[in-house]
């Protein structure tokens, strides 16, 4: 792990530099004086120094840095002029991440070559005398007893990791007396090891040192699974990381084969080093500590996940209630409290029967049967609340039920809003219907009123009287028809059933219809298909003729040309059950109606908004159904037809 020291008081520049320094252990210093202190304390590979400042400041800093740390290379950021030559490398003021990365790579290559040359010139030699002296010492029984006593306090610290580590470091310090000691733990992602507890280390080291878990010292300890001493190390990278931590011994804390922590010891206060016996005993003890740290980390992870889950539940817009195998409430979130008006403190850990009916029954059924319930609207007896609920079962790895979950939403406000909207729509619809009815009635009354005002002056005019009689008769007939249609929509009236010939009823209707039907401005051509036999039906003939006449008027009204051609036929139709009914077909090849209008053809509330003529099929349907029959509509490419089906009269 290479170390970098950033020297600048500019926060913006520091942020830009940090963006391009992934994979480095980074130290920061706001001034040259602080930077020199860090260089004396830690072995720094590269120094990134801001060139802004008074003239000559960069040259002075570079000179002082080389006196303190000859192996450190200085990279000037934004240097220009003569001062550029004093630094080892230079990065332009408006540098990009790629430019910074290129300069750093060249600087590290140069430093590696310098170190290799130094090693060739001054090869390191082991110190057997120091090691032999260290091997002579070992822990006595009193020291071991103190450590074991301290470990009892460690195990009694519970899940307080900070207290556990502090107690452990105090115990180590009392027995082996290291000048410095540190415990490194992995971060949340497990990518880096950072100092979690220490004794005797400088704040700069504690705050800045980051050891990648997949490289250097952590990787060696995880792979070897044994302590490492500085005098036994030949790998330059391991040596640098131990020196960075100011340690001479590093011990892995392993639990179930995983590296959960690293213990680093500095030089002992007295003596040349630690004996093999001391390191072996320490390794045995920290192995037990590793299990404690792993359990605490697992506990903290579960606590974080629980807290995260509780936060999710507390911010959900739906109410959530859970029960366990013991049929007791395990969870009730904030929204569930608001909807039900209950306190989670009073409900949790209570029997599910504490929930308002039928919520407890739904949870019990899901837990017992294992069948989830999809979204369903129910009304609680509690305050008559409308809620939408769904339930599902939670199972373990063996598919055995662990509990059940109830998720629900309050629909009361939506129901009230829908009711208000429905009332507003109905009122608006009623307004339009009344306006349409008033318009249908007003037109005939205007013509009648006009002739009444003129009759006194022109009564002796025979043409006027003849025209008056024709118009008044037509408009009065229209008024009567309006009221008959409206009356038929709300009441069936009195029906006089009698057995009649359906074909004869159709013939009488055609003879009664005025071929010069007024009010539509069209000529009507009616064709009746002849019948070879009678078709007896038991109906009210008057109401049947009314129903058919409304259908004829509707087809005439929807014929775009001046001539409306309508055909009528009567016949029998076999039913699937073996019986038959009498069918009257009223069709037209001149009438055209859109598919959208056909969908609401039999809805009087929708059709009355357009015209009372358009409400005719709805009135006809009501009359035909009152006679025991059915009315349908069908449209082909060339013809629009109404089909009236009536049960045949008993023989």
Question: What are the main properties of this structure?
Answer:
651 residues; alpha+beta; 6-stranded antiparallel beta sheet; 5-stranded parallel beta sheet
Question: How is this structure best described in words?
Answer:
By secondary structure, this protein is an alpha+beta fold. Helix content is 47%, strand content 22%. It is built from 21 helices and 23 strands. The strands form five sheets. A six-stranded antiparallel beta sheet has the order 8-7-6-11-10-9. A hairpin with a 5-residue loop joins strand 6 and strand 7. Helix 7 runs antiparallel to helix 11. It is elongated. About 1% of the residues have low confidence.
Helix and strand topology:
Elements: E1 3-7, H1 11-19, E2 25-29, H2 32-41, E3 46-50, H3 57-68, E4 73-77, E5 89-91, H4 97-121, H5 128-135, H6 141-155, H7 161-176, E6 181-186, E7 192-199, H8 203-208, E8 211-212, H9 216-224, E9 228-229, H10 236-244, E10 249-255, E11 258-265, H11 276-315, E12 319-324, E13 329-332, H12 334-340, H13 344-347, H14 359-369, E14 373-379, E15 386-395, E16 401-410, H15 412-458, H16 462-490, E17 498-501, H17 502-512, E18 523-528, E19 536-539, H18 541-557, E20 563-574, E21 580-588, H19 595-599, H20 604-607, H21 616-626, E22 630-635, E23 640-646
Parallel strand pairs: 1-2, 1-3, 3-4, 4-5, 18-20
Antiparallel strand pairs: 6-7, 6-11, 7-8, 9-10, 10-11, 12-13, 12-16, 14-15, 15-16, 17-19, 20-21, 21-23, 22-23
